[in-house]
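Example for tutorial group B:
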C-alpha cells in the first residue's frame, strides 16, 4: 500500500532538520520596544492622563504627543486601559527604587526621626519633583483599572509603604507620634498626597504665595505637624 507522507513529516523521518516557516520571526519584548518608543508612550500618556484625565484623553492624543501615527500605540499596548496600568506600574516601580536608594544613603547611626524625614522628602519628590506625573495619575485614576491590574499595582504600593511601618511604630513607642500608628500612617499619606492639588514650586525671587515652598521646606513643615519633639 502506498502512503503519501507529508513533506514536513518525511523530513523528520529521514533525520533532516525541518524547514523553517516563512515570514519574520516573532519579536521579543525588547525588540518590540523599537528604540524605547514604549517608554515614550508611557511618559507621554502619564502627562496627558494627569492634565486631561483618563476619560478625556484618546489614544490619538497620546500618539500625537509622542510623534506616532494614531494606531501605533496598539503595537505596544492592547488598549488604553493597559497603557494606564503601565503608567501606574512604572510610577510605583520608580517610586520604590528611589525610596530604597534614599534609605540606603542614610548613615548607620541615623535615628528613626531622620528616617521619617528621608521618607517624607522622597515622597514629596515622587509627587512633586521632576518626572512626577505617574503617581498623581495613580491617585486619581485608580478606579479605571480592572481587578488584575489593581492587584499588580497594589503589590508594589504595599512594598513601598512597608518601609514606613516600622518607622511609625518606633515613633509611637517613643511617644513622638500620638494615636494609632496604622491610622496615623493612613492620614499622613493622605495629607502628603493631597499636596499635588495645591503645591506650586517657588519661582525666582517673587514673594512666596500660597503653597510656594521648596520640597525641603515642605518636609520640615510636615514633620512639625506630624511629630512631637522627643521627651
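The residue assignment follows.
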Amino acid at each position: 500500500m502506498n502512503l503519501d507522507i507529508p513533506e514536513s513529516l518525511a523530513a523528520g523521518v529521514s533525520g533532516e532538520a525541518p524547514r523553517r516557516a516563512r515570514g519574520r520571526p516573532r519579536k521579543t519584548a525588547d525588540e518590540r520596544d523599537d528604540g524605547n518608543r514604549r517608554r515614550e508612550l508611557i511618559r507621554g500618556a502619564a502627562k496627558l492622563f494627569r492634565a486631561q484625565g483618563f476619560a478625556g484623553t484618546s489614544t490619538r492624543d497620546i500618539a500625537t504627543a509622542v510623534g506616532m501615527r494614531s494606531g501605533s500605540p496598539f503595537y505596544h499596548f492592547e488598549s488604553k486601559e493597559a497603557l494606564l496600568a503601565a503608567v501606574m506600574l512604572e510610577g510605583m516601580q520608580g517610586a520604590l527604587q528611589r525610596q530604597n536608594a534614599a534609605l540606603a544613603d542614610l548613615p548607620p547611626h541615623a535615628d528613626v526621626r531622620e528616617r521619617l524625614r528621608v521618607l517624607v522628602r522622597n515622597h514629596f519628590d515622587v509627587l512633586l519633583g521632576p518626572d512626577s506625573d505617574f503617581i498623581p495619575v495613580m491617585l486619581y485614576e485608580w478606579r479605571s483599572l480592572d481587578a488584575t491590574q489593581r492587584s499588580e499595582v497594589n503589590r508594589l504600593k504595599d512594598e513601598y509603604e512597608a518601609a514606613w511601618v516600622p518607622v511609625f511604630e518606633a515613633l509611637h513607642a517613643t511617644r513622638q507620634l500620638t494615636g494609632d500608628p496604622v491610622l496615623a500612617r493612613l492620614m499622613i499619606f493622605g495629607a502628603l498626597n493631597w499636596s499635588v492639588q495645591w503645591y506650586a514650586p517657588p519661582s525666582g525671587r517673587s514673594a512666596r504665595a500660597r503653597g510656594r515652598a521648596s520640597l525641603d521646606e515642605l518636609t520640615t513643615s510636615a514633620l512639625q505637624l506630624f511629630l512631637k519633639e522627643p521627651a
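Residues 1-18, 20-27 have pLDDT under 50 and may be disordered. Compare this with the pattern of hydrophobic and polar residues in the output above.
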